[in-house]
Design goal:
single chain; globular; alpha/beta
Length: 443
């Protein structure tokens, strides 16, 4: 009989090479522990780099070399071998190597249980006891990127009552749910639930990024709850100008043109809110899912994030993807990983996505909707007749999918593009609508 192969040396060496090179360190450390490594040398390297990260030391190819070679953990040739491995794969492949490593660990655990069961059979232990042990191993160690928890009936019953009591407690409910300044959205969906993946979509130019900024403003600036806004499209200066407009209510076009002498003090005063906020911004032009996950893990550990906005998933870098991987598969896998992360970190993840030109489907990956707990879509009225009938509202938020809410609702909004502001307050909508009505010029 041929021996059963359970170790995945390629995955193990690639994960260690990524750590040695400082690639996705926080992501790997959040997913892998030293028991996942079969090779003693790899296990020792993991221990050293985990210690560096815990101590807040920088981890890269320059800092890891003396730590590993000077302590005689590995030779210089060994170090160069890891560097050579590192040059042969792309950052986007790191999650797949991590998953392979975890699967190898699960195989080892199941093999250990089988060997144990074989010994118990020889010792004529009770068949029921042996089967129960094997079933436990299969439940707890089946392949999955998410942590699994077996909940006993009595534990679930107690948990249900505690969960209901927590929702009846105002402060505890606030800790689990995040409401926005939009009363219509809060009433329709009951707030954003921690652990949820939310898709925010729209056609091009309909205000996806502006609405994302409105969410970030409500959570990070108004409520001072820690939120990370990840942006892949705008430069730092472009964002600064947009935030100056969004927070102050001063025309964005006027700010860009530098014609705000009379309103400069108003802008400066409004930015006090940003100064003392908990809104963290990360510019990521090379957005790749492995880097996104790594940064979220790192900043969650550092700032206790409650929400993350990824703006936007359509900008996910596909240049380094293997030819065998389709673009829609990358988007679907990215959505799955973000959903898993939202659950494990107990945070809200808002994933901004673009609709196709006909407005019916998610561009680049319509299967992403199956991973989402909630899907909100920004819609414009079809024509002038719809605009007239719904005055003063010029757009609406459609609830396209909701695991726990009624779908199909259309929540009327006004998007004031000049200040990048959305509102569902009718008085404000009327004010914006009148200000933006075309002025008739006498002939």
């Amino acid at each position: 009989m041929e021996p059963i192969l359970v170790n995945d040396n390629t995955a193990e060496n690639n994960v260690v090479a990524a750590l040695v090179g400082g690639r996705s360190v926080d992501y790997i450390l959040s997913q892998v522990n030293e028991d996942d490594f079969s090779n003693d040398k790899n296990r020792s390297i993991y221990r050293v780099i985990a210690g560096m990260a815990q101590a807040g030391e920088k981890v890269d190819m320059i800092t890891t070399r003396p730590k590993l070679t000077a302590s005689h953990l590995i030779s210089l040739q060994d170090y160069m071998d890891y560097v050579k491995i590192l040059s042969g794969f792309k950052p986007i492949e790191i999650p797949s190597y991590v998953e392979r490593l975890k699967i190898a660990t699960q195989r080892k655990e199941i093999l250990r249980m089988l060997v144990k069961a074989s010994g118990e059979l020889r010792e004529q232990e009770s068949p029921n006891k042996i089967l129960q042990g094997l079933m436990d191993a299969l439940v707890l160690h089946s392949p999955s990127s998410a942590k699994r928890t077996l909940i006993l009936p009595e534990t679930m019953a107690e948990g249900c009552l505690e969960a209901v009591n927590n929702r009846m407690d105002v402060e505890k409910r606030k800790a689990s749910v995040i409401n926005l300044s939009f009363g219509s959205i809060n009433r329709a969906i009951g707030g954003f639930e921690k652990g949820d993946l939310i898709i925010l979509s729209a056609e091009s130019g309909a205000g996806k990024s502006a609405f994302s900024m409105n969410i970030a403003r409500d959570v990070g600036v108004a409520m001072k709850r820690p939120i990370l806004y990840m942006n892949s499209e705008m430069t730092t200066e472009q964002q600064e100008l947009r935030w100056a407009s969004c927070l102050s209510g001063v025309s964005h076009s006027a700010i860009r043109a530098g014609q705000v002498d009379a309103e400069y003090n108003k802008i400066a005063s409004s930015l006090t809110g940003m100064l003392y906020s908990k809104l963290y911004t990360l510019n990521m032009p090379d957005m790749q899912i492995s880097n996104v996950l790594s940064e979220i893990c790192l900043l969650h550990k550092r700032y206790g994030l409650e929400m993350v906005i990824v703006d936007y998933i359509g900008r996910m870098d596909t240049m380094n993807v293997k030819d065998t991987v389709k673009e829609w598969q990358l988007m679907l896998n990215s959505a799955r990983m973000l959903k898993t992360l939202a659950t494990e970190l107990n945070i809200v993840v808002v994933m901004v996505a673009q609709l196709t030109k006909d407005g019916g489907h998610l561009a680049q990956g319509s299967y992403m909707k199956h991973e989402a707990d909630l899907w909100l879509n920004i819609c414009r009225w079809n024509d002038d007749r719809d605009l007239a009938e719904n005055y003063p509202w010029n757009c609406f938020i459609e609830v396209r999918k909701g695991r726990n809410v009624e779908t199909g609702k259309a929540l009327r909004m006004y998007f004031n593009g000049d200040t990048l502001t959305f509102t569902d307050d009718e008085a404000k909508a009327v004010k914006y609508a009148k200000a933006n009505e075309p002025v008739e010029v006498p002939v």
